[in-house]
Amino acid sequence: MTTTQTKKSSAGLLALFGAILVVQGFGSAITEAGWDTSFGVSALLREAGAPAWVDLVVGAVGCALLAAAARARGLRDAP
Fold first, then answer.
1. How confident is the model at residue 77 (pLDDT cuts 50, 70, 90)?
2. Strand stretches in the chain, DSSP E
3. pTM for this structure?
4. Could you write out the three-class secondary structure of 14-34?
5. What is the pLDDT of residue 36?
6. Tell me, what's the pLDDT at 7?
7. Residue 30 to residues 24, 37, 50: CA-CA distances in angstroms?
8. Confidence band, pLDDT 50/70/90 cuts, at residue 48
């Protein structure tokens, strides 16, 4: 496996994990506010005693991973 293929694979994984965390974090915050229920990673953190703002932190980490994946793929330099 060449270095280019490895970079593309890692960028793809970053994008995947970023998308999952965005949905888990922000989606759980929305469902908690609207329907008084949470899901996924955020629900587990809530059951463990984490405060409500942790949902937003999980979503923000997802955004950071998506930004890192975009940078790794070079999408910022696209016309």
1. low
2. none
3. 0.76
4. HHHHHHHHHHHHHHHHHHHHH
5. 85
6. 57
7. 10, 9, 17
8. very high
- Do residues 75 and 24 touch, judged by C-beta distance below 8 A? no
Between CA 70 and CA 7 the distance in angstroms is 12
Residue 10 and residue 43: Cα distance in Å, rounded?
Answer: 28
Res 60: pLDDT? 96
Nearest to 42 by CA among 15, 34, 50, 18: 50
25 Cβ contact partners less than 8 Å away, ≥ 6 residues apart: 41, 42, 55, 56, 57, 58, 59, 60, 61, 62
Q: Could you give the CA distance from residue 51 to residue 32 in angstroms, rounded to a whole number?
A: 12
